Amino acid sequence: MANGFVHWGDKQALMLINQSHKAGESLTHALRSLTDVFGYIDERAITPLMQTFALSRAEILGVTSYYDDFRDTPPARHVIRLCQAEACQAVGGRELSTHLFAKTGLALGEAAKNGQVALEAVYCLGLCANGPAGQIDDKPAVHLDAAILDAKLAELDQ
Ligand code: FES
Q1: N or C terminus of the chain: which is more exposed, having fewer CB within 10 Å?
Q2: In the chain, what are the domain boundaries?
Q3: Which atom of ligand 1 is nearest to the CA of 124?
Q4: Quick one: CATH architecture of 78-156?
Q5: What is the pTM of this model?
Q6: What torsion do the CA atoms of 50, 55, 59, 63 make, to the nearest 10 degrees?
């Protein structure tokens, strides 16, 4: 997958869960391992997690829903993050999110139904002097403008 994650596999998921447990690690460590490999925690992992860590479904879902990093759906193939913090706002960061909405129909925090691209807001990447800033597939992007984003969208769509 372009986002670096592999497609969900029950056998591999079970192996990761068991590795965490045998190493004496916590549920959170197992969830992190699953997320690092698959990009999300599939519903099919809940029962093995319950059995392995002797926890209830509610306890596991309580942890996964508490942390933003634990998603329950596969991530988009590409992610565009736009900084919405003050320094980037001052140089047009918000206007860029409006532009992307006009181009894609997606607000920040939404993903295309085909899973190709997701838009996310971030709040300062330490690139304030070079805003508007963002990340495209985890790579820093600075001095963003509408033309750059249009070109990136076209590139990511291929
Ligand atoms: S405010 Fe956007 S990178 Fe710091």
Answers
A1: C
A2: 10-66, 78-156
A3: 4
A4: 3-Layer(aba) Sandwich (3.40)
A5: 0.74
A6: -70
